[in-house]
């Protein structure tokens, strides 16, 4: 009560007294603080019962006012006094001793406000960055401490300052060896000999026990401060002996039970990892536990997931940005079991992804590699390699969600290496098991369980859309590099070409007059000519005397594959070929944007440079897809949709060899080789034999199509429904391939000079 009365009286006196020059006022408030330690022997009264918080706030106000009144960058006498008398050192000492109780909070708040309010750079001063560095080491020492909020505010302020001037981070990389050498001299000597020993502004000899004991205690702690070895352990110091206490303190605070503190600590780490200084990046990855935090917590959240989850729940759960997931246990439990655990896992995955995305390049590579080794290989791979169908389905669905969510280049690359391996050389039949996980995943595309097949095919579909060249190189392109799927001679004109040139079928499309493209302005076309460098140039064999490529032949080759009696789309409005053109145009443009920066061939490799005598192997991935395509008449509708979706994604890619292999019906295949067109031709041959055995084939086909479109209610069951659905998918897929072929041709001609 007495102290509060004294405080009120002091404020009244200050209000009535004439205003002093800023420096005198500043010195007055500082000496009032040190005077408290001289006259007070009661060290148990909380700091809030003293005038110390008020004096500290006044000092901050004076420093802020002084800076406002001076030209930018000019240091005033009050700031000079603070720096020269090492006031921050003294405050650090008092805060470490927490004398009086609560002083640590006041000191942390003073440092935070000083760094935040003052515009001129303070951290380059040794009498600022040295006490700041010491105060950093005090943060995060005790979990759930009463000072946690002030600690995280202080640390984040320091991080923000380093983000503004990244070179300053070098002041925060402490060398252990130097510290240990200094520690040998003893704590007492540090007070006397260290040029940065604090100055209280009073005669040291007059300081009674409070200041003296606080200073000595802090000096003794300088020899063995948190994160440093004791003098007896000098011989165990590692060669790379830099401490990154700022990161260590933030990592400690990520373990706080207070979620708000954890989020702020994660934000601070995000700022720190983005600093471009190589020494800081090296220290971050070698001398801190950041990578362990990322991977351990990922593993912890993954293990908390239920062993069995509905893939649809995993796929459709709302996206959650890290730090923003809101707990609603009641609603989560009603939605589906494990929703809270799934959201927590995806939220932390998002944080890892964003942190690696922001990180300095070498640090990002190291952190991503750690996620691969400690999470993907150690935790996920055994789940993906198991034999339980339920376990395979759940783990594959989770992997699919992970692939969709990862956006950082470094983490995506390591994820791809984990799934597919790092091989880029030609694939051989005996080498397909070289990377067991890749082999297992591709085999799962043709699993006995349709659910597993669909989920794994969907996984590869998402992979193919990721901006990573290695995915396509590893899965398909390395097998097509030598073009040895073609005969070792230039093909001659074929009879079917003459037939197509002289007489087109009745449903041939006049593509040059197609209204979808007749009104396309240059802005709406694929304006960048770079995509063309990835597609094969027109062959002279396909060119008319007027120079126009006969794309009609290729398009109509696909449109006419399915015989008329097996077609049904013309009887249903809105299912024509033109419905695929806009989608193909948009998707192809998107793919060109992704592939533009890749080192892909501008044209097919010349035959004279190809090793056409080497045996051709289409690759494990294409083999499984072609096998699946060959069974389209005998597979469930959903499986067929997914198989054709993956093949259409491959067909859209602007690569010369892939375009030739998948979309050119006229390539002269080497003996024993197959292409996408040849696979479909065989399916059509099988279809022709089977349609004649089904009575009322055409009406049944139309009924099934209308039911699939929701135009007819489900009624009596239809015989051979699997085959009929397969025929419908086949017809639609051929129209889609025709649209893709035309769009790629049209884009090439619209960008040609």
TrEMBL record:
Name by which UniProt lists this protein: FHF complex subunit HOOK interacting protein 2A-like isoform X2
Higher taxonomy: Eukaryota, Metazoa, Chordata, Craniata, Vertebrata
Disordered as annotated region, ranges: 186-209, 488-548
Compositionally biased region (Polar residues): 197-209
Organism name: Cyprinus carpio (Common carp)
Family in the record: Belongs to the FHIP family.
PANTHER family: FHF COMPLEX SUBUNIT HOOK INTERACTING PROTEIN 2A, RAI16 PROTEIN-RELATED
Pfam family, any one: KELAA
Gene designation: LOC109061487
Domain FHF complex subunit HOOK-interacting protein C-terminal, chain residue ranges per copy: 618-710
Comp. bias regions, Basic and acidic residues: 186-196, 488-501
């Amino acid at each position: 009560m007495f102290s509060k009365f004294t405080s009120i009286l002091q404020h009244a006196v200050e209000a009535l007294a004439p205003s002093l020059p800023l420096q005198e006022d500043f010195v007055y408030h500082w000496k009032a603080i040190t005077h408290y330690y001289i006259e007070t022997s009661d060290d148990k009264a909380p700091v809030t019962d003293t005038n110390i918080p008020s004096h500290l706030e006044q000092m901050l106000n004076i420093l802020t006012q002084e800076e406002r009144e001076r030209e930018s960058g000019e240091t005033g006498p009050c700031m000079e006094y603070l720096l020269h008398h090492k006031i921050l050192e003294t405050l650090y000492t008092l805060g470490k001793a927490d004398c009086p109780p609560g002083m640590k909070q006041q000191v942390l708040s003073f440092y935070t406000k000083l760094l935040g309010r003052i515009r001129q750079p303070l951290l380059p001063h040794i009498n600022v960055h040295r006490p700041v560095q010491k105060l950093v080491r005090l943060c995060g020492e005790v979990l759930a401490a009463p000072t946690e909020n002030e600690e995280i505010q202080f640390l984040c302020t320091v991080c923000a300052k380093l983000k503004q001037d990244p070179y300053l981070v070098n002041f925060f990389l402490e060398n252990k060896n130097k510290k240990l050498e200094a520690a040998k001299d003893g704590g007492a000597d540090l007070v006397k000999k260290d040029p940065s020993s604090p100055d209280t502004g009073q005669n040291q000899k007059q300081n009674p026990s409070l200041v003296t004991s606080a200073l000595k205690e802090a000096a003794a702690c300088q020899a063995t401060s948190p994160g440093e070895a004791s003098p007896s352990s000098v011989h165990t110091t590692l060669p790379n002996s830099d401490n990154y206490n700022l990161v260590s303190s933030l990592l400690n605070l990520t373990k706080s039970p207070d979620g708000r503190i954890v989020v702020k600590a994660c934000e601070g780490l995000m700022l720190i990892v983005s600093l471009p200084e190589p020494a800081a990046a090296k220290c971050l990855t070698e001398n801190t536990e950041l990578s362990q935090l990322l991977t351990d917590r990922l593993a912890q959240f993954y293990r908390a997931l239920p062993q069995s989850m509905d893939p649809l729940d995993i796929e459709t759960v709302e996206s959650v940005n890290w730090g923003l997931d809101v707990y609603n246990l009641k609603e989560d439990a009603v939605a589906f079991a494990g929703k809270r655990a799934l959201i927590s896992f995806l939220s932390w995955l998002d944080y890892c992804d964003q942190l690696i995305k922001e990180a300095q390049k070498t640090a990002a590579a190291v952190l991503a590699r750690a996620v691969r080794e400690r999470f993907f290989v150690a935790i996920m791979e055994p789940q993906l390699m198991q034999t339980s169908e339920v376990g395979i389905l759940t783990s594959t669905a989770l992997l699919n969600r992970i692939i969709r969510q990862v956006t950082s280049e470094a983490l995506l690359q390591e994820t791809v290496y984990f799934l597919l391996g790092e091989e880029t050389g030609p694939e051989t039949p005996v080498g397909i098991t070289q990377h067991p996980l890749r082999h297992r995943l591709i085999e799962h595309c043709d699993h006995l369980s349709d659910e597993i097949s669909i989920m794994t095919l969907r996984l590869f579909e998402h992979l193919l859309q990721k901006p990573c060249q290695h995915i396509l190189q590893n899965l398909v392109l390395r097998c097509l590099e030598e073009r040895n799927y073609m005969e070792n001679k230039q093909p001659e004109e074929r009879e079917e070409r003459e037939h197509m040139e002289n007489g087109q079928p009745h449903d041939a499309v006049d593509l040059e007059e197609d209204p979808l493209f007749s009104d396309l302005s240059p802005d709406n076309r694929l304006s960048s000519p770079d995509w063309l460098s990835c597609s094969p140039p027109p062959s002279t064999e396909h060119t008319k005397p007027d120079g126009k490529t006969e794309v009609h032949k290729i398009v109509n080759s696909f449109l006419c594959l399915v015989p008329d009696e097996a077609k049904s789309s013309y009887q249903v409005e809105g299912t024509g070929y033109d419905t695929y053109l806009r989608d193909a145009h948009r998707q192809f443009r998107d793919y060109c944007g992704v592939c533009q920066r890749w080192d892909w061939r501008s044209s097919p490799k010349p035959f004279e440079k190809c090793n056409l005598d080497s045996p051709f192997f289409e690759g494990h991935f294409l083999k499984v897809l072609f096998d699946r395509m060959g069974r389209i008449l005998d597979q469930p509708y959903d499986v067929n949709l997914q198989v054709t979706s993956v093949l259409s994604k491959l067909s859209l890619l602007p690569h010369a060899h892939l375009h030739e292999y998948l979309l050119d019906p006229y390539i002269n295949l080497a003996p024993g080789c197959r292409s996408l067109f040849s696979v479909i031709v065989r399916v059509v041959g099988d279809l022709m034999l089977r349609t004649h055995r089904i009575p009322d084939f055409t009406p049944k086909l139309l009924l099934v199509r209308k039911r699939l479109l929701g135009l007819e209610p489900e009624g009596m069951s239809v015989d051979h429904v699997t085959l009929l659905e397969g025929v419908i998918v086949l017809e639609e897929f051929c129209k889609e391939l025709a649209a893709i072929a035309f769009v790629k041709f049209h884009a090439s001609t619209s960008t040609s000079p």
